Amino acid sequence: MTEPELDIKTRILLAAKKLFAQQGYDGTSVRQICDEAGANVSLVSYHFGGKEKVFEAIFEHFFPGHMLNDLAAESMSPVEGITKIVGEVVKFTMNDWEMSDIVQLEITLNTHRTATVFRFLDPVWTKVKDLLQEGKDQGIFQIDSVSYAMLQVMGVALAHKRAKNSRFTFNYEDMDTDQLAEQTIEFVLRGLGVNRHE
Asked: Where is the HTH tetR-type domain (predicted)?
């Protein structure tokens, strides 16, 4: 489906997602969103009730919350859980740069919108923390501190986002998302003291 064929609400959301990722929420006006979407300025208020509601609607429509929340609710072993969640986090951040850039920017700026972001993120990272604790209690994960392990898992799962803007050369166009996810999972599990190939 080409963009002109999309309904106006979807076009507004796609435009806002693109601009929020590029310019930030505060750097983007409703007029810019509507110009990008090819929409009348009044339609943002009519369909969403303002720019703040557009921000929330972007998360409701584009954040893979249902899939990640399903993972968070699933009963799985610590190794299986960490494997699935880390893999999906890497795939999400690689497949939707705009959405993951918005998440990163809002967390960094720590605005009142950050609460919206955490409403979507918290179930996933709470599940990771629970899985780390369970794995530690069962002697599966060789870690001293769940908090430190959590910090390392999050850091590794999101490292490629920070590397994108580093001074080192990373060619993301040639990078295979599934391979990156698999290598990240392997690195995390080895860090937790698990060798899946033994």
From this structure: 6-66
